[in-house]
Amino acid sequence: MQIIETGNTAAALGVKLARAQVIAAYPITPQTPLTEKLSEFIESGEMKAEYIPVESEHSALAICIAAASAGARSFTATSSNGLLYMHEQIQWAAGARLPLVMCVANRGVGAPWNIWNDHQDSISQRDTGWIQIYANDHQQIIDSVLKAFCLAEEVMIPVMVCYDGYILSHTHMPFDVPDSETADAFLPPYQPPYALDPADPANLNTVTMPECRPDVRGDIAPGYMEIRHLLQHDLIEAIPALMRVEERFRAVFGRGGNPYIEPYRCDDADYIAVSLGSLSYQLHGVVDALRAEGVRAGVLSVHLYRPFPDKIIVEALDGCSGVIVFEKALSYGYQGPLCSDIKSALYRHAQGRPFVTNYILGLGGREITTQDLYEALKASCSPDGGAGEETRWIGLKLHTRGMQT
Amino acid sequence: MKSDNIEIRWHGRGGQGAITAAKIVAKAMFASGYTGVAMVPTFGTERRGAPVFTSLKVSREKIYDLSPSKKPDIVVVLDHLLLEEEDITQGLKRDGLVIINSPLAVRSYRFNGSRVAVADVTDLSVKAGLPQGMVNSGIIGSFARAAGLLELDVLLKTIKDEFIGRRPDENARAAQLCYENTAMGGL
């Protein structure tokens, strides 16, 4: 059924259709309406789940970790500093190989305090061992939540579904909500390979020595490094696993296709803009305008950010002479993280590598006008990429107090 | 960048229901065959009474650009006093339309080359049985009359669905009264 609702509601409906059994969350703007909606579903009896209100995000994820360890399908959601407050438990959830799903309504991080959209919150959790998926619209939010549970449970790695705060979380647009029978056909009840059981006590994730050593049964158990290597191995294997999930999704729902990237007019493009989230869709009109002027431009939206589908991205960029990366996040002291990742992926191409230009924009919700995007992309659609390698900022106003250089 | 979109910018005060009004119009437009609708609120630090606005983009195709409307075709003003506080009609297209909830006559308003529609939505909504200050259902009656993009019966049904349990009939009556009592002028 097609409805017109917010991105937060799309996420909540996805969680309801996934029949999550335990939800623990702490309110934070702009995520709050998502978990409010879930609490309404549970209160009204529409959804059978345990909703556990907590005093902090750290506790929210700790409860999800405990619930998942006991074999329950578990969900939480947060934004910004709430996500940062979870950081220790985020690492734990991945190391413990728990198939949690978390939505992040992306928001800038303090200080200074800010409630508006950028990607610094989830990008700063890039190296924690979670799978990260970025959605561009409400259909992708609800669909990604369903796929996220399926993927997490297949590879036993937690999944973050990220979408732009306000721009998607609070915007109303149409999307299709599948009926619960169809969702059930796609996502059967969670069958944990292992679950805590009081009748069979166990210690999980206790001190693990640097070296392998015999366990209580006398078997040689892996050391810390073997366990971490397995996480890395399984994350890389999550790339083909996601395609299997996507194919099953398409067989059941009749939509979907490429779960890694979404290229638009890239086939014959000389210049390709790359970005995450709703910004990629805003660039569609910019690319159309440049095409009308005879500039062969395209845009590549990256959906799967970790594990990074480097070969798939390089293939999509093959043959272009310039890559222009637009980012709402920064690795402070260097450049945009997506830009670094793209450059790293392109490194193996010794010959004929495209130039890579990096724009930083929209931090803390600074408005991104389509005209600004047009001017920036147009300036970069030239053989030398406009002007050099240095990271460029869009919409910066340096005439303010104390900013003159 | 796309010119075949219709962009409608809604200005109100925090608590007045501009976002609900725009959402109802989004649903009614979608029900009328506009497959692309996006209602994108611009959030500041919300508080009751402060100026707020939201952008409603409507098209026959999917909307990809969710940035705030810079060049709206239509501007809807839920409180005429906002016109004295902010440049409400900024960027309005030359052949645009301004729809205002105001007790003043339509000839009091002139916006360089634009059509103007005025109804005393505050007063008409009270006549329809709503509490003083509820104007968000009424203003979309004026919108339907002035913009000519929606059939009144589709709109009234959408209003009744949206306000289930919250005076659906009075809200629909407010929209109907405003539809019938919107004065057109301007240019």
TrEMBL record, chain A:
Top EC class of this enzyme: oxidoreductase
Pfam families reported in the protein's UniProt record: PFOR_II (PF17147), POR_N (PF01855)
EC number(s) per entry: 1.2.7.1
The entry's keywords: Oxidoreductase, Pyruvate
Keyword Oxidoreductase found: yes
Domain Pyruvate flavodoxin/ferredoxin oxidoreductase pyrimidine binding span(s) in chain numbering: 14-224
Domain Pyruvate:ferredoxin oxidoreductase core: 269-373
Protein name: Pyruvate synthase subunit PorA
From TrEMBL, chain B:
Keywords: Oxidoreductase, Pyruvate
EC number, as in UniProt: 1.2.7.1, 1.2.7.7
Domain Pyruvate/ketoisovalerate oxidoreductase catalytic: 14-179
Catalytic EC class: oxidoreductase
Keyword Oxidoreductase: yes
GO molecular function: 3-methyl-2-oxobutanoate dehydrogenase (ferredoxin) activity; pyruvate synthase activity
PANTHER family per the UniProt record, alphabetical: PYRUVATE SYNTHASE SUBUNIT PORC (PTHR43366:SF1)
Protein name: Pyruvate synthase subunit PorC / Ketoisovalerate oxidoreductase subunit VorC
